[in-house]
Design a protein that fits this description.
Layout lengths: L2 E7 L2 H19 L3 E9 L4 E9 L2 E8 L6 E8 L7 H17 L4 E10 L3 E2 L2 E2 L6 E4 L5 E9 L2 H23 L4 E8 L30 E2 L2 E2 L3 H12 L3 H21 L17 H19 L17 H12 L2 H20 L32 H19 L3
Parallel strand pairs: 7-13
Antiparallel strand pairs: 1-5, 2-3, 3-4, 4-5, 6-10, 6-11, 8-9, 9-10, 12-13
Helix pairs in contact: 1-2, 3-5, 3-9, 5-6, 5-9, 6-7, 6-8, 6-9, 7-8
């Protein structure tokens, strides 16, 4: 016989907090809560079924009833083999649901130390939010120490990976560098005791020129960031909205492209590595850089639709051109738009960005598919596109967000 327990939560944010707390309590109470997660909805009964949870001596089918989207009116437990839940189990489930409902705002702090690899090591920085520290080590790696709030270690580990990835994506646009997570470990607190391992600076060192475009953000062979970057890291730890989510997606596109363009080498006729980077990864990297601009140009942007055809009056390429023109200039904007057009052909028609008949020196050829009537190569080099994109992203976050 199934057990139905009243919950009475009316919005999805609180509903998910309740569920996160409840599953953490299941792990603590039963020693495990292994899911055969196969969710589906039964609309006519306003019921969502999660699947089956393996806890102690039972395989429980667990579902919720809802009144509005995101709400939970009741949670239902039923033994998958048809056996009745004994009185002790029913009492335990009632107790856990009640406790989760009353205490889902209470979380624990979990501390992590991540080892980061890049071309250089970081200078030393610290923020008060999430007890975060970034510092370089004498073994040529850098450490990122931080805390996350969660209901148990399992959920904390997931949040820690998400936090590291987003932080490294942001630091990539801040510095023009790429970063790799080497390892991550749980630690007792955010206090790092092995000071002798650090490349220690008494004062935090910041970018001399936070408006740079070319090259990397380094000083004395250490990675340095701007004061605005520290403020932004604090800001995203305290705030979470769709604008921040969109900006972090743009950073992720940039960082993914940055890793690809660093691994891409053309092999010339003598099978030697050249300074040009034009292999198939180039097309994906170019696509991701331009996609980063597409995403960031959408933040805070609203466009009217045509009353007759319902199409947006403002094209995406126009948005990308305008944001490039705003932070750089019209010549670069035209270059980016041309590259954006080639990117669209690559994505939607499979037309390769690199020449299918390459030559060492450019030669004029005709092409009926282009506006110029001539064969066109990718307008912006991978280096320029990288630097244009990161510069625009840096200028955007410092201007748009209330740091």
């Amino acid at each position: 016989m199934k057990l139905e327990i009243e919950v009475g939560i009316n919005n999805i944010k609180q509903s998910n907090k309740f569920l996160r707390k409840l599953w953490a309590l299941f792990n603590e109470e039963f020693g495990k809560c292994s899911w055969q997660y196969s969710p589906f909805k039964i609309g006519k009964y306003q019921q969502i079924c999660f699947g089956m949870a393996d806890i102690k001596d039972y395989n429980l089918e667990i579902s919720i009833l809802y009144k509005n989207k995101g709400s939970i009116t009741k949670i239902i437990f039923e033994s998958s083999d048809g056996n009745k839940l004994d009185e002790k189990m029913r009492d335990t489930l009632n107790k856990l649901v009640k406790y989760a409902k009353e205490n889902y705002e209470k979380k624990e702090a979990f501390f992590f130390k991540a080892s980061i690899i890049s071309n250089y090591v970081f200078s030393n920085y610290e923020t008060q939010c999430q007890s975060m520290q970034i510092f370089g080590l004498k073994n040529k790696s850098s450490n990122l120490v931080f805390s996350v709030s969660a209901y148990d270690h399992n959920q904390a580990s997931g949040k820690a990976i998400e936090f590291i990835n987003e932080t490294l994506d942001f630091l990539s646009i801040e510095t023009n560098l790429m970063f790799y997570l080497d390892e991550i470990n749980v630690i007792e607190s955010a206090k790092f005791k092995e000071k002798d391992e650090m490349i220690y600076n008494k004062k935090e060192s910041y970018q001399d020129n936070s408006d740079f475009i070319e090259g990397y953000s380094t000083k004395n062979k250490q990675i340095v960031i701007s004061k605005e970057a520290i403020q932004f890291l604090k800001y995203i730890q305290k705030n979470d909205n769709e604008d921040i989510r969109a900006f972090m997606r743009a950073c992720h596109h940039f960082h993914s492209a940055r890793k690809l363009d660093s691994d891409t080498f053309e092999v010339n006729s003598l099978h030697k590595k050249s300074n040009k980077r034009l292999d198939s990864n180039l097309e994906i990297a170019n696509t991701l850089y331009l996609s980063a601009l597409e995403v960031v140009s959408s933040i805070g942007f609203q466009s009217d639709r045509c009353s007759e055809c319902n199409q947006l009056k403002y094209s995406i390429s126009k948005r990308v051109k305008d944001i490039t023109n705003k932070y750089l200039n019209d010549n670069v904007a035209k270059e980016i738009v041309k590259s954006y057009s080639l990117r669209s052909k690559y994505l939607h028609e499979g037309v390769l960005i690199r020449s299918t008949s390459p030559t060492i020196q450019s030669i004029p050829l005709l092409d009926n598919s282009t506006k110029s009537g001539c064969k066109e190569n990718f307008s912006a080099s991978i280096y320029n596109l990288r630097e244009y994109t990161s510069y625009i992203l840096r200028r955007f976050y410092r201007e748009f967000f209330d740091l």
